[in-house]
Amino acid sequence: MAAVESLPPGTPSAMRNAFGTVLSALILVLIGVLAFSIRLFSVIKYESVIHEFDPYFNYRVTQFLSKNGIYEFWNWFDDRTWYPLGRVIGGTVYPGLTLTAGTIWWVLNAINIPLSVETVCVFTAPVFSAFASWATYLLTKEVKGSGAGLAAAALLAMVPSYISRSVAGSYDNEAVAIFALIFTFYLYIKTLNTGSLFYATLNAIAYFYMVCSWGGYTFIINLIPMHVLLCIVTGRYSPRLYIAYAPLVVLGTLLAALVPVVGFNAVLTSEHFASFLVFIIIHVVALVYYIKGILTPKMFKVAVTLVVSIGLVVCLIVVAVLVALVASSPTGGWSGRSLSLLDPTYASKYIPIIASVSEHQPPTWPSYFMDINVLAFLVPAGIIACFSPLSDASSFVVLYIVMSVYFSGVMVRLMLVLAPAACIMSGIALSQAFDVFTGSIKYQLSSKSKDDAEDNTSTKNAPKDDASSGKADKGEEVAKERLSKKGKKKEREPAEKPSVKSKIVKKKALVLPLEASIVALLLLIMLGAFYVIHCVWAAAEAYSAPSIVLTSQSHDGLHVFDDFRESYAWLSHNTDVDDKVASWWDYGYQTTAMANRTVIVDNNTWNNTHIATVGTAMSSPEKAAWEIFNSLDVKYVLVVFGGVIGYPSDDINKFLWMVRIGGGEFPHIKEADYLRDGQYRIDSEATPTMLNCLMYKLCYYRFVETDGKGYDRVRRTEIGKKHFKLTHFEEVFTSHHWMVRIYKLKPQKNRIRGRVKKLKQKTTSGVSSKSVKKNPWM
Amino acid sequence: MAARIWIFSVAVALFLSFSSGHDLQIVNAERRIDLSSHIVNAFLTLKVENIGKDPAADMLLAFPPTQIKHLSMVQAMAITGKKKKKTYLPLDVKPTEQPDAPNDTGYFLVSFATPLTPGETVTLEVLYILTHSLEPFPSEIAQSESQLVYYRDSAVILSPYHIKQQTTFFKTPSARVESFTSVDPANRAGKEIKYGPYEDRAPYSYAPVIVHFENNSPFVVVEELVREIEISHWGSLQITEHYRLTHGGARHKGVFSRVDYQSRRSISGSSSFNALLAVLPPKVNSVYYRDNIGNISTSHLRTGFKKSELEFEPRYPLFGGWRATFIIGYRVPLEDYLFEAPDGRRYLNFTFGCPLVETIVNKLTIKVVLPEGSKDPSTVLPFTVNQDLQVKYSYLDIVGRTVVVLQKDNVVPTHNVPFQVYYTFKPIYMLAEPFMLVSAFFFVFVASLAYVHIDLNIVKK
Predict the structure, then answer these.
(1) A47: nearest CA partner in chain B
(2) Residue B60: which domain range?
(3) What Gene Ontology molecular function terms does this protein carry (chain A) (predicted)?
(4) CB B53 within 8 Å of CB B21
(5) Entry pTM
(6) Is residue B369 within 8 angstroms of chain A, CB to CB?
(7) Where are chain A's structural domains?
């Protein structure tokens, strides 16, 4: 738009620019529509429902926010979870997503569009992925022109890695955070390119939004300093760099400290120290440049030696203080998740609770192919393109991709950070490749026509100019191959236009043979088509299942397993509103959100001991478990059991984590007791401890009566102990496919009965009063 | 024991009160009480004779206070003609108060079509429906037990008039009757218990009886039903029904075992229910069935010319005392339900009541959302309901839509009769929202046009 303003109207090039602007605006709108609609497979194939685990918590918080308002939200102490500890939601949650959806809901209702909170939550992620692809366009445009921008935006709109976290219903922090991440980077680059304080301020605000949204903001606050450092080291220091960095650190840190969940961590934890260090360095460098400017070279040399010697001392002191500070905190000032980023084996060694989450595992090679597909091959080309020529902006994206590749190698979840970088790189690569190939084709065609025709004043230059200017201005490259007629018309225009940007005239070397160019173009298009097909497949098949409702396609049609909601609905309607439900922490968020019952532990795994207590109860024998649960005021115990229909992620398969986490805190639970030949087994080879633990009993209670053999379809074996009775628990609900089983703790043994027993024993002169003494409630 | 004393007091009261002002007597009365579901239907055939000197314009029907609370509906018809050429003439029935009613007896006043001249007789058919009148005993049962209930009534008909001859039949759902109070002559044959005939019973006679029998029919009770009918003049009627359902029978006790429920269906959970049937209008479309945590996938729709049937299951089988909530929504074409009255007003003609079959609704609220800009709503209903007006803001409304709220307690399927809501509406209002959208977009484009063309820089470049 700005380009249109600056040019006088009426001239052909202004017309062309206007046309380009409108065309790229149209393409961007279409990309937005694509990004939104490719994420609707889950709604169409399943239903408009919140997915998985964490989104249910976010949904519940949003409900609370929309009902009670922002102040209540900040002060919200949730007593329905982590019983009896509770959880301060306002101070422990990243509020960005919730506030965003809450605001959208509020605005819509203010103009009388009565969408429910749930609907708004479901569609927040797709909407923000459209925003994210536009932000990608802006960022890439700053780096390599709008052609690359459009290509990158189109790639990001459908990159499977991002789709996996932002399908409709996947209402998680990442949904808005990726947009915030890209947008912050864009504003940083924009500031770096313009040196405008306006953009620097916007950048700090965007960073604030990112801090509100996701713990991944530390990536920004480490990546940008690294880039600044890189610029300084490579001698690219400029006042623009200073403008881009210094306000971000000051404003950004102040703003970040406003977010309750971050608070003083913004200055106290090691994740942020890099930014402060670089902040000091950039000031030193700025000072040096300033002094260099006002002093004569001779004086400067003297000053340097002086300053360096003093500076070294100061630095040493500062470093020593920092090291002392860091060393004084137990984890060295690093949070567990961040530490496991630096040392991938950290979590599995020390924190089983982090290791137990599948998305914290390192990814496998196929998952790279699954999640970024052909981008993996285009990225190197993009990196190369970024080096010709290397600018501040392109060095930033190179750094971005390098860092994100490393982090994605540590944790599957961080593949999400890699995806935008890969899209930007691939967009650049694709756009440059199209430039070269279409340029060559045009050059070849025009040189052919030059032989035939006599009108040959300056067409020789045409491909160069067109290719070089095409990069800088409106991005028709993408459209070009579709509009070959238009391209031909345009050929003559650059002749009139002097090459404004004074780009290098090495284009001659880039001219390829006509056939090779055409074949390469076709191959590129095929590659793109393959990518699109893969993305649509991934969106439709792999990533759209909401995981609370399962479906299976059998010969007699679609079969729906809706057991989770069946039992949550049962809990919510048929138990007392203050009853406490114990389950493994995976189901905590869902239970509080869907069943509205108090849970002992949930997916916010902040208290390891509490989780270990539940783990211990699950791995203890019935009586000990009853005592633990009773002491926690638990009324119902919920277990997930997949043995009847073959649902693999059930509690028996998660049992090893219960034992490990429980054993980590309570040493009387020994993992070895549950293992036979190094494996958790539930068949006839299983250890007695295993066969007597609560989890086994609750899962397999009366299981044998279903088929007469007790054949577990997940473990593919017959269970070890088939007939047993429960003495301290009673089955109160089992869902249709047995996936969820709910047991009630039997009430405490009556004292009166004990007394009667005693009396009887006295009268019959029974000796063993041991059994009575054992009962702790006597 | 209390009942005996009560009879005594009734007998005392009998001489004191002769309030109806008419000298009527019931020559012959036959009462058939159907106990086969949880909705108790009682059919009363009365042959009434005027033995006074003045013509009688109406007569009273009396109900004991225990029944008056649960009385959902009373209908009366006069029968004229014999056997083959019987014609039924609906009569006006309305609740009434009597100043000296003994022991809180409740009354309904039946107005005859033509006043009964002295000596004349008329045959009346009275239907009354009782809800929540079967008391489960034992009140808590385990999964494998079947449900036994008490029904309390009188062996003789409570009436302010002398009844010369009367018989009462109780029809139970199965032959399993644990006990019944014997008031001679009384006997049981299969599913039927017969009390009477009794001769010459004085006014306000009462002989309490208890029938204890097996009733495993689904005690589907909707505690609250809110039906919202939204009229869109763009061609459809959107109906959204919020149900809060419960099993009104004997409470479930202890264990619920899925093994028993699935493998031994015949003896396990016989009083529970899992399938429900809703009768929806024909040409119904866009039907959905969900609750507040999402879609419920167990439903099946059969559409037909006369009616559509939606068979569906709650998320889990309902045992005594268990609850479930859900929402059913559907859309029907407007032209079948919205008409223009001769005076230019429009009226909606829709069915009152609950679409679920064999259901008691404790509290029914029907909200008819008229289109924005409608005025002067009025309703026509065959029975009295509480009425109220509200305003609802929906998609891009400015002044809001008028909502006619009809509220009635204790609704049974017999209440599923058409009702009408009249209102005036100018079709021009239909264009308001499209116009708003168009102008909003227009404004956006104009604004962006202006932004592009106006130079906002302070410093001239």
Answers:
(1) B295
(2) 24-214
(3) dolichyl-diphosphooligosaccharide-protein glycotransferase activity; metal ion binding
(4) no
(5) 0.85
(6) no
(7) 560-745
